[in-house]
Every structure is written in structure tokens, then in C-alpha cells.
Write a structure and sequence with these properties.
Layout: H1 5-26, H2 33-65
Helix pairs in contact: 1-2
Amino acid sequence: MKLTVYERHSLIPLGLGSSLLLVNSLCRSFLDDFRKGFLCGMALMCFIYALCTLVLFFKRNFKHYGNS
């Protein structure tokens, strides 16, 4: 199954962001405050990038196909 451009640009950052949050939660006792904040910030940026990609996808679909 081949992914479209929008699927790649939204699914890859979502997977990366969730992996960063998983590493952050599993290694919480080994990480100092800077690394915890860095991992959470990187995960947040991945989620924001995926959200922006989805908004652009729906915006272009509405423009091309109309509101119905």
C-alpha cells in the first residue's frame, strides 16, 4: 500500500512524536530536566507539523471539491 503525500507528511510526524513521548515516559528517571523538556518540545513540534499538514489537506480539498 502506497501512502499519499499528505499521509506521509502527517503520519510520519505523528509516529515520531508518539515515539518521543514514549521514550520520555520510559526513561524519565534517567533524564535530567533539559532532556525531558527537549523531548516533549520535539514531540509537540511533530504534532503541530502534522496538524498543519492536515489543515492544508482539508483546505485544498474544500477548494477543489467544494463544501458538499
